[in-house]
Amino acid sequence: MQPVTLRTARLELSLPRGADVDAIYEACQDAGIQRYTPVPFPYERSHAEGFVERVPSDWDAGKNLTWAIHEGTALVGTIGVYRIDGLGNGEIGYWMAPASRGSGRLNEAANAVIDWSFAADGLDLIRLEWRAVVGNVAPARVARRLGFRYEGLMRLALANAKHRDDGWVAALLRTDERMPQPWPVLEG
User: Taxonomically, which superkingdom (predicted)?
Assistant: First the structure.
């Protein structure tokens, strides 16, 4: 699959590039990114270089599609559709650099990715899944705002370099109304 660039009012989602290596490395020093995402630990500059080099071949394979989220020339995060199975299913994942959190950029980027994922001239998916480590509340609130429906708990299903955790799972169907949904794990 050829890489696709997506644009929103203030963001460009495109392949990460060599100029992003330092920003990716710096962002992945964040304790939250290291705790809640599957980045290597400790995260070294060579990991960022390898990530930037690997993304184009991941697009060629059509199973894991990652975009760098840029505002102007600054990298503010990454987002992707992963585990694309050829049967209409995929999984959205994302992280934002600490200085870029809480400004609506992630909602903006995620809506563009979701639109393209469900579009007939995009991935033409039927179901887009979301997963996170139990207790990772901020990304869960984003998923809820995007219209994802909470589906349950996956016991010890999420692993990274240091941890194996229970995970929350939610999904959005192409036919779902994309309005915030109640999630019992985020209530109260």
Answer: Bacteria
Q: Write out pLDDT tens, residues 116-154.
A: 999 999 999 999 999 999 999 999 999 999 999 999 999
Measured CA to CA, the distance from residue 52 to residue 50 in angstroms comes to 5
Contact between 113 and 67 (Cβ < 8 Å): yes
How many Cβ atoms are within 10 Å of 151's Cβ, its own excluded? 14
**pLDDT tens digits along 45-82:** 999 999 999 999 999 999 999 999 999 999 999 999 99
CA nearest to 185, candidates 151, 159, 156: 151
CATH of the domain at 50: 3.40.630.30
**Is residue 63 domain-resident?**
yes
Q: Cα–Cα distance between 131 and 86 in angstroms, integer? A: 19
For 37-168, where are the alpha helices, taking DSSP H only? 45-61, 105-118, 137-145
Q: How far apart are CA 188 and CA 182, in angstroms?
A: 11
